[in-house]
From TrEMBL:
Gene name linked to the record: dinG
Superkingdom: Bacteria
Coiled coil (residue ranges): 505-532
Gene3D superfamilies, alphabetized: P-loop containing nucleotide triphosphate hydrolases (3.40.50.300), Ribonuclease H-like superfamily/Ribonuclease H (3.30.420.10)
Residue spans crossing the bilayer: none
Boundaries of every Helicase ATP-binding domain copy: 249-516
Annotated protein name in UniProt: 3'-5' exonuclease DinG
Chain's role: 3'-5' exonuclease.
Binding site for ATP: 284-291
Homology family: Belongs to the helicase family. DinG subfamily. Type 2 sub-subfamily.
EC number(s) recorded for this UniProt protein: 3.1.-.-
Amino acid sequence: MSTFAIVDLETTGNSSSKQDRILEIGIVIIKQGQVIEEFSSLVYPEREIPPFITALTGIQEEDIIHAPLFSEIAEDVYQLVEDCYIVAHNIEFDLGFLNEEFIRCGYEALHNPIIDTVELARIFLPGSPSFKLGQLADHLNIGHAHPHRALSDAQVTADLLTLLLEEIHTLPERTLTHILKIVGKLKSDVRPFIETAVEKARYNQSSHDQYEVHYGLPIKKQPEELYETKDVELPFNQWIMEAYEGKESLKKIVDHYEERSGQRQMSEAVYQSLDEGRHALLEAGAGTGKSLAYLLSTLYYSVTHNERLVIATHTTALQNQLLEEEIPRMEELFGRPIKVALYKGKRHYISLLHFSYELDRSYYDNYDIVLTKAMILVWLTKTSTGDIDEIQLPSSGQQFWHKISAEQSGGAMSFNNKHASYFQWAEERAERADLLITNHSLLCLDLISNEQRLPAYDRVLIDEAHHLEAIASRYFGIRLNYKELQRQLTQFNDLFHPAVFKQIDADVKKQIQQGSRKVEQAKEELNQLSRYLFQKVKATRKRSQSRSDIGRAQYLLKETDSVFANTSDEMTQRFLSNIQAVKREAIALMELIGPLLSIEQNGDVRVLYSRLETNASVCETIIDQLVHYFVLDDNVVKWIEIDVDGASNSVYLYSEPLNVAGLLQERLFLTKKSVVLTSATLTTNGSFDYMKRLIGVAKWKDLYELSIPSPYDYKQRVRLMVPNDFPNIKEDPEEFIYSISEAIYSIAHATKGRMLVLFTSYDMLRKTYYLLKDVINPEEFMVFAQGISTGSRDRLRKNFQTFDQSILLGTSSFWEGVDIPGDDLSCLVIVRLPFQPPDQPLQVMRDYRLKQQGQSPFMNHSLPQAIIRFKQGFGRLIRSTTDRGVVFVCDHRLIEAKYGRHFLASIPDVPLMYKSTSTLVQEMEKWL
């Protein structure tokens, strides 16, 4: 039995090469599954402790005044760990620091066998929401007394190690055997543990009932969907009354359920729209409980009419909420299982055939690909869906996924093993479903595509519907970039390689050589085109040039650009002629190996055939999107973006229809019997007129319109404050940013952090962040900023909530869909009213078209668009009945501009104060 030394260090920084030192060490020794010894000591680091480290660990200068130097404890530590497996959560960090100190003290570096619990957790717990130690401990219900203290972290890591080693023994023999083939490229020396698990699994017959094998891959058995049908006999009015008021009602099913009249009102409105075959716009304020409300009605309609309904959401968070929280409640209420299916596009699902093919070709894999393969092997024994969104792949793993997603599986799949496909299983579940849950993207793709992307449906409910027009515009347009095109070309080239066809009995040498040559020529043409576009956009760059919300320079294609457009078009056609040639060679290869499909026993031919088929289709898509891109069209807005400080070919091409309303009317509202749109923000100034114009139903007479106010007591729970002493941003933008920074700092003291600051400009966010970093001591407040601090939106939100006193700066996506309930958020700062910058390409052309039509671009588009955005931002503050806080708007236009009243009329009635910043901060401190 092995002995493990689980090590955790707290250090003064992240890099021993930059003279960072150990601050605290904790070691747990495990032998024969038992803790036999623990060691813990603070260490005098011979340098100051940075404020961030003190904020993170709680260790202060006075704590380490009398602590030993590492040299004083080095011998004890060395003897404790020298004959053990060294285990750490991120082994390279801890062992690197430890060895640096040992060498400094005259000892040899340790070369023990190692185990990295981050790596093992990624492999054997692939569905974990995070692999940070604290969040893993929460997820696994491992007690963690003192996060970011060495001994406590080492104890948690020891518990995690024990759990991971046990997890290995739950896997089937074939999965473990596959992992053994690639384990040599992992950091952790786990081969002996896997070999032992293989021996035990060989004689474990019980696991055979849990898995089925396809293409040599053990996967979790697909559940048998045996539904006990139970008719709903009550008419809707009586049934909905029972649902809200009866003995087996929501009161019994939902913890702490509060009756809200608006929720029932919404249920009745949704059902009426579906039943009468009408389109509806239903606004439901925050806290209405709209998802439960519409599920009651959509499910009742589906069950009683035996008709599949579609629910489309914008965010995966809402999809997960529906599936994991709301649907189980509905099943309890209906007294029967609900046939519900989450349905996504092909790229989300793994192809077992293609993964098996790649697994047999692991000789040259780098570390990320090996880690990805190991993760997927384990995940397949746990997933019922095969949806990659269930796990987080490493960065290179995302590229590998393109090779093994169901997108690679074309018509060749029908030759054999038709039912061994997660995408086909998803299709079958969707066909049987009462309710089909999907996203706006797939809904819009289904609307624009000649190929049916969703099972047939007549009635659809679209939640978060204020996004529909923007998503539809994106899908009716083009989004291409150099990096993605290069990735696709590299994937083409991988296919035109002699080794790929080595085992295939066909003479393909000529096609491979020609295909590879054409791919290289296409790459070169793409390089030249991208560099030309980059230089053009960069050369025209002015201080006033428009920027995207993530800081890219933008260039709008206009009729006056005929010389530039003609040159670009010529270069594009040269690129596309090579793409056309690549497509021809792919088709020629398909014709050569096609006859082997019916006689080949292994899957190689089918994999290659389907990949060639997919690549030919991708070529066709590239040609369709680019062939007329530089031909200007009055009804389409086209623009180019570049990363000014990035590579000289980091180019992004965009186009969107100038007006998507007609397309939505034609493809959606005229073809479906009932489309119900719902959101917390569909009205401006109490009217649906703007939204109706946007989506193409402005002149429809038979629309059902209903706005349900939020049940939250905003008057008691919210204060709206607007400073009257801010400088004019147009006259002195730099002084305005200084004032923002000073206000944030002052407010932070009043609110003890707990602030979300929303910007409309990424450039202003960045400047404010660096000003704050200069004046704020990290011991006081932690400052996180979108696009600067590392991590996704969810990661930034979690980091913000981890620290007691923190400030989060966000733009773009932070205006909505971010839930920070309770005491974690006390103040929302809105820096500017969220008008779209007037120089954004789409905005410029829409304004121009409205002027041509004799309409006011500001009143008809800019203002209502900004009001909806403002309502979304305002909604970040109050997320439950007990929340309270301040909305601080640093834009005097809310009070002084004539249109300010339209913003105020669109949010709940709350007490408003318009005074000096210092007075407002004092009032805020008193009220909070």
